[in-house]
Write a structure and sequence with these properties.
NADH Oxidase, four-stranded antiparallel β-sheet, 6 strands, 39% helix, globular
Length: 223
């Protein structure tokens, strides 16, 4: 017997001709291939509407049981970004100087990273992503989430792609531990910090590591 809460609606997406599908995918790849992680940001402003629309795109991601277990806090306030940077650098310094293994530090060396996080104050926006483990209903009932990390990870991927297509740069920053972010952003106990995304335009003197991506045959097989 079908659950009465299941209410199907028609879904008739555009049927695209194979040659047009191929053209669109080549175009998308050409755009995606130019994306790079950026650590040097311009302080030039980015419109609030651009951030709102990018987050709307992220919110279209699929999620376990359609729980949509994500929450985005977009910060442009200078004082709040300064507090975030201070706390993040404190944790990152501990990581680089004490917690990271030599193997891990060696893997990071070609990327030129360290515990100084100027991007957290230079970038006009910093988006803090939270994973919502459950929702608490007005009667106190907890609505459990499913496939939380997978769902939030997909939403973050949508967000990064949307920002890149809009000509904006970002990077994924995961200080460890990140518990300070919940207090800083005033989020409830059912939400856990997932990652930080500074967002803006690359600075005029921005440089990135000379890296290459694995070719298709190293990341996939078609049977």
């Amino acid at each position: 017997m079908t659950d009465p809460r299941y209410v199907p609606v028609p879904y008739r997406p555009e049927r695209v001709a194979p040659e047009e599908s191929a053209r669109r995918l080549r175009e998308d790849y050409a755009i995606a291939e130019r994306r790079r992680t950026v650590r040097a940001f311009s302080t030039d402003p980015v419109p609030r509407e651009a951030i709102e629309d990018a987050i709307r795109v992220a919110g279209t991601a699929p999620s376990g049981a359609h729980r949509q277990p994500w929450y985005f806090v977009a910060i442009s306030d200078g004082d709040m970004k300064a507090k975030l940077r201070e706390a993040a650098e404190r944790e990152e310094r501990e990581f680089y100087e004490r917690r990271a293994t030599p193997e891990w530090l060696d893997a990071l060396a070609p990327l030129g990273t360290d515990f100084f996080k100027a991007h957290l104050t230079d970038a006009p926006w910093v988006i803090v992503v939270f994973r919502r483990d459950y929702e608490e209903l007005p009667d106190g009932t907890r609505l459990k989430g499913y496939y939380l990390n997978e769902s939030v990870g997909i939403a973050v991927g949508f967000l990064i792609a949307a920002l890149h297509r809009a000509g904006l740069a970002t990077l994924t920053h995961t200080p460890a531990p990140m518990t300070f972010l919940r207090e800083l952003c005033g989020r409830p106990a059912n939400e856990k910090p997932y990652l930080i995304l500074p967002v803006g335009y690359p600075s005029d003197d921005c440089v990135v590591p000379d890296l290459s991506r694995k070719p298709l045959h190293e990341i996939a097989e078609l049977r």
